[in-house]
Amino acid sequence: MHWLWIDRVVELVPRTRLVALKNVSLAEDHLHDHFAADPVRKRAAMPIMPASLIIEGVAQSSGILVGHAEGFREKCVLAKVSKAELDREVLPGQTLRYTVNMIQFDTVGASTLSVVEVMDLSKPNPGWAEIGRIELMFSHIDRNMAGIEFPSHNFVFSDTFRTLLKTSGIAVDF
Amino acid sequence: MTRDEIFSKVKEVLVDALAVDDDEVTPTATLTKDLGAESIDFLDIVFKLEQAFGFKIGQGELFPENVSKDPEYVRDGKVTTKGIAALRERLPHVDFSGFEKNPQLAKVGEVFTVDALVKFVERKLAAK
Fold first, then answer.
1. Catalytic annotation on A32?
2. pLDDT tens digits for range A98-150
3. Where are the domains positioned within chain B?
4. Which B-chain residues 47-66 have CB contacts (< 8 A) with chain A?
5. Which listed residue (A2, A32, A34, A153) is catalytic?
6. Nearest residue on chain B to A110, alpha-carbon basis
7. Angle at A105 between CA A101 and CA A111, to 5 degrees
8. Is B59 close to A143, i.e. CB distance below 8 A?
9. What torsion do the CA atoms of A48, A49, A53, A59 make, to the nearest 10 degrees?
10. Hey, where are the domains in chain A?
């Protein structure tokens, strides 16, 4: 399994906004554990997309927006989940849309505000319904206040990210 | 903007950034020890102050950076006299008088009080 919690970037306005999609599939192993059937309590399996992985998907989407701003030269890492509110369960077969807005960006880091929406194609007249908002902070770790040094190669944006960007039609030259 | 108005906005910033209660944010409260701020919270506070007051804060302008890497400024885990002088010059909004009695580097975060932030904002607004 690859640690990538978005399937495609569908819009990128540099330094401003990024929109990404995540299709929730019952083929994903984690849904069979979250939550597995409980024979003792006589509860059937209840596959629900974990909120923590929605936050991770938003963090990856936001990380691409922040990283793209400096041509992926900076190692931008998620430093703080400032706020996360999700008020509905997301089920297999539904699609998530993350719209990330850059709030602040400077040499040491960035902050973003994202809107999480869900679409359920099984419903009549399906449309995007907002289910929550997530505020994140990123640090450009080579510019940390404590002056701590990290390895020189960019370990944040891996081959998996490169593939995602290419399949999303985003020019990659790192 | 009056000092009270600045304090009130700084308080809003800290309640939001550090998830603390209103009444915990007193002028003498320290960001780390009393309000539980961790290193990344300092960047969050910088961002939120910029938004709240509409000015830009340069790197190292509000909180110090790289002090611990300079051997002239830190020796045996303590900030030297030269180091304290440099900090005073760089950060005129901070009161180092208590810190210099026992200048343990590990405790330098404790000099950042709510009042220091208010003074910083006052200076920034006056220089606008």
1. no
2. 999 999 999 889 999 999 999 999 999 899 999 999 999 999 977 766 666 77
3. 1-56+112-128, 64-111
4. 47, 50-51, 59, 63-66
5. A34
6. B47
7. 55
8. yes
9. -140
10. 8-30+43-158
Chain-centre distance of CA A125, in angstroms?
26
Q: Class of the B1-56+112-128 domain?
A: mainly alpha
Render the burial of B78-96: b for 16+ CB within 10 Å, e for the rest: bbbeebbebbeeebebbeb
Report the CATH superfamily, name and number, of domain A8-30+43-158: Hotdog Thioesterase (3.10.129.10)
3-state secondary structure of A87: coil
Residues B74-121: tens digit of each pLDDT = 888 899 999 999 899 999 999 999 999 999 988 888 899 999 999 999
How far is residue B36's CA from residue B30's CA, in Å, rounded to a whole number? 9
The conformational region for residue A15 under phi > 0 = left, psi -120 to 50 = alpha, else beta, is left
The answer to whether A108 faces chain B, any CB pair under 8 Å, is yes
Tokens standing for residue B94: 């901070």
The candidate with the shortest Cα–Cα distance to A145, out of B88, B61, B97, is: B61
Q: Please report residues of A whose CB lies closer than 8 A to that of B59.
A: 106-108, 143
Q: Is A68 exposed, middle or buried (0-12, 13-18, 19+ CB in 10 A)?
A: buried
Rounded distance between C-alpha atoms, residue B119 and residue B52, angstroms: 15
What would the DSSP string read from start to end of chain B? --HHHHHHHHHHHHHHHH---GGG--TT-BTTTTT---HHHHHHHHHHHHHHHT----TTTSS--SGGG-TTTEETTEE-HHHHHHHHHH-TTS--TTGGGS-BGGGGGGG-BHHHHHHHHHHHHHH-
Q: What is the complex's ipTM, to 2 decimals?
A: 0.81
CA distance A130 to chain B (A): 23
Which residues have a Cβ under 8 Å from the Cβ of A65 and sit 6 or more positions away? A12, A15, A17, A18, A100, A102, A112
